[in-house]
Amino acid sequence: MNLDMLNKQQAEAVVTTEGPLLILAGAGSGKTRVLTYRTAYLIEEMGVNPYNIMAITFTNKAAGEMRDRIDDMVGYGSESIWVSTFHSTCVRILRRYIDRLGYSTNFTIYDADDQKTLMKDICKRLEIDTKLYKEKMFLNVISSAKDNMIDPVEFENQGAGDFVKRKQAMVYKEYQLALKQNNALDFDDLLCKTVELFKLDKEVLNYYQERFRYIMVDEYQDTNNVQFEFIRLLAMKYKNLCVVGDDDQSIYKFRGANIYNILNFEKHFEDAKVIKLEQNYRSSQNILDAANSVISNNIGRKDKRLWTDNGAGAKIDFEQLESGYEEADYVARAINNMVRKEDASYKDCAVLYRTNAQSRLFEERFINSNIPYKIVGGVNFYARKEIKDLLAYLKTIDNGRDDIAVRRIINVPKRGIGATSINRVADYADENEIDFYTALKRAADIPGMGRAESKIKPFIMFIQSLKARAEMDSVSDLLKAIIDETGYVDELKAEGTDEAEQRIENINELVSKAAAYDEGVENPTLSGFLEEVALVADIDGLDDNSDYVVLMTLHSAKGLEFPNVFLAGMEDGLFPSYMSITSDDAASEIEEERRLAYVGITRAKQHLTITSARTRMIRGETQYNKVSRFVKEIPKELMSGEIYEQRSKDEGSGANSFKKARENFRKTPTYGTEYATTFNTSRKRAPVYTPVGSQRSFASANTSKGLDYSVGDRVTHMKFGQGEVKAIIEGGRDYEVTVDFDKAGTKKMFASFAKLKKI
Question: Which of 200, 211, 257, 717 is the most buried (most CB within 10 A)?
Fold first, then answer.
């Protein structure tokens, strides 16, 4: 055990083994190394049985990395240590004890699509107008309630006297009843049911408290209320709880993360010790100074400052481009230049942005520049139709009580069982309080089934035969049997399209995944495979060995690092978002956005490029954007290039500026190839850059009566609030008005739609 490999603070964290410990680990400060050494120290120096150690993190990728490092350092006995995600840990506990809560241990885990399907059925059954009350709203409300450990009964009591809350309570109650009837849990239930089990069954809680006498939790700043309670209950007996996190990287408030779990750690756990890890091993000092300068503007944080021995490094490049298209073109040219000069490979580069919608322009530009790329955080492999169909077969074989899975495949491939027959089966199941699959087996007893009965019978026989095979066959063999006997791939081959070919490739990949599971697990089971698949996150699919540029949102980039990072769309209204700026709790929301900017900056190891656009098309409107306040919080001496302020009044309006914008755009490599400009000189409108083939239509309006405001007047907009009119351009059918709003920045809009009112 050589602690000389660690710095002073890291070594102190390793040897502090008893009692509550908070390790404040700044970005790139070697927290995984500390956790690994600490685990080895507990075993080798303190004589702790590996069986009594648990390490929890958030992603499979992080858990896998930690597991590999612990195995390498500890060696024999390391397999007894629990190293897993919160959800995997809870699944493992529930597989053993959930029968004490009235569920079967072969329960199904519902993903987002399964939840939507179930919610749609519930809304239909309760005759809820989904145009007025969206299914997604109900799911969000239920998820929030579960994060705060509020069950349907308590939720109903809290909503007494509120019509909408009473409706939500009714849906929540039906949703939970349906889940239990289907012997299914959603992701929130995995935590909630484990906490419920611990609170109701002291024998189970005591067993796991004795089992896990030393608990370590990574990324503690991302924990929500139910995760906090889960950890608190487990650690309550021995109090040997070590949590590692960085409040400056708490960016998942929208998922329920509670930053006060880490900020108030010393209040929650008496006599807690706090150790700060501030030495960074990832980035250059210029990048760290930029990150420190930005995050220091937050009030709700624990004081720390990152530093490194890596040297000052290159200055941060800042480029403000004319439009989003030019921004994408600039980034593409910069990446190709680095690769051409052999300064970097494609895989050394990442483009990070605030919203998924920003990826489109980069995708288009990269395709035209022959730059290989991959979007992380797009459609999850396991959310694709063909994959969900085949997984639904496996779920039905494993757990026939899962109505969502059975109903998904009853006509896949088509068996001629109509919607009317399916509804009759569903009604029969409800009336007799049985699951859908059991009702199918009793199709002969259901009135009005007619010929549908003869079509249902072969389906039941097929599933029953697969259930029998599941006890002997491997998961991959079972999957191949489903594919062959349903003719699923044969139907796709018959289509003969590129899309069908891609779907076949996805199916082949699923078979490969099943085979890898069969070979890589000591006791492979169908339930285990489905569980592993259900817990896969998008980021876990990132292949470190493939040579492509990564495109991802800043939220998806957490925990990753790249030699070259392009931080795009750094404009007020986009980042920080308009919603944050105008929120009732703007101070708190902007602090969350600033933490997100801090995360983005600290992903860069050697070189950071920040870009913004003066104009950007958002929801069909051209908007003038100020440089993000977060960019302006970076000292100018750390930057290369000039930080441009908002255009002056003369630049911001009039035909001359539009002409200049058009001329600038024509100088770029994109002009005249895949993009065209729309410019109407008679109306003196700004050029609108759109992909070839798309059209921009202008609204018609009766402007003969004129406007009741003029340039220089203060006006108000129902969404953007108050602002000053900067320019008015009269067109053939409408006025084009430019307004500098106090909070939302400069916007250009048509008067007939804007409905501005003079103050």
Answer: 257
- The answer on pLDDT for 681 being more than 70 is no
With a cut of 70, say whether residue 650 has pLDDT above it.
no
Tell me whether residue 219 is one of the annotated catalytic residues: yes
In the residue annotation, 603 being an active-site residue is answered as yes
Q: Are 634 and 316 a contacting pair, CB within 8 Å? A: yes
Query: Which residue of the set 31, 395, 626, 685 is catalytic?
Result: 31
Greatest mean pLDDT among 131-145, 290-304, 689-703? 290-304
Catalytic residue among 135, 218, 435, 734: 218
| Structure tokens that stand for 641 in this block | 């290039």
Cα 205 from Cα 235, distance rounded (Å): 10
User: Which of 249, 553, 609, 622 is the catalytic position?
Assistant: 249
Residues 424, 503, 513, 603: which is the catalytic one? 603
For helices 225-235 and 202-211, the axis angle rounded to 10 degrees is 80
Q: Which phi and psi angles does 407 have, rounded to 5°?
A: -70, -25
What are the distances in angstroms from CA 114 to CA 220, 324, 506?
29, 36, 20
**Exactly one of 114, 121, 219, 329 is catalytic; which is it?**
219
Six token digits for residue 35: 């956790």
Paired with 108 in beta bridges are 184
Whether residue 519 lies in the annotated active site: no
Measure the CA–CA gap between 273 and 607, rounded to whole angstroms: 36
56-65, 159-168, 645-654, 687-696: the lowest-pLDDT one:
687-696
> Is 427 considered catalytic here?
no
Active site residue 31: yes
Q: How big is the CA angle at 108 (ends 104 and 113), to the nearest 5 degrees?
A: 150
Contacts of 370 (CB under 8 A, 6+ apart): none
Arithmetic mean of pLDDT, 739-751 = 82
Q: What is the helix (H) or strand (E) element at residue 684, kind and residue range? A: none
Catalytic-residue membership of 497:
no
Amino acid 344: pLDDT:
92
For residues 251 and 599, what is the distance between their CA atoms, to the nearest angstrom? 8
The pLDDT tens digits of the residues spanning 354-364 come to: 987 788 888 88
Q: How far is CA 311 from CA 96, 119, 283, 604, in A?
A: 52, 55, 9, 14
Residue found under tokens 């009837």: 181
Q: Which among 9, 32, 59, 227 is annotated as catalytic?
A: 32
